[in-house]
Write a structure and sequence with these properties.
With 127 residues, this protein is mainly alpha-helical. Helix content is 59%, strand content 6%. Strands 1-3-2 form a 3-stranded antiparallel sheet. It is rod-shaped and about 100 Å long. About 9% of the residues have low confidence.
Length: 127
Amino acid sequence: MNYSILNSWKEIASYLERGVRTVQRWEREKRLPVHRIRSSPKSPVFAFRTEMDSWVRENPITVEQGETSAPLGRTAIRITRLEFTAGVRCFSTSIAYTAQLVAKQVQSAEAIRSHIARISPPKHLVR
């Protein structure tokens, strides 16, 4: 058995640590170097590990697209999710703090309004 050849979509996907549909999309959209036994689009596929490695180095997938070209892509995505969770918590805390500040300002404005309503204007200013 030749270990430098990947003999199916499943093996290719496993090697790249992605799903089968993702690597099939990469073949269509990003020219992933996959070879077919016959020229038919539905014929069996194979790929060379060296070509896969070169392709990954030359075609980095950005994190913004939800993907990564890191050799341990799943680990990188987990880190991104942790950072995202931390960011959401920080954002939620910021929103809560802002809401508290706004509530205090509204209370202050209401207190000023009620104070102004209680005091009578000086007689020389009333017409």
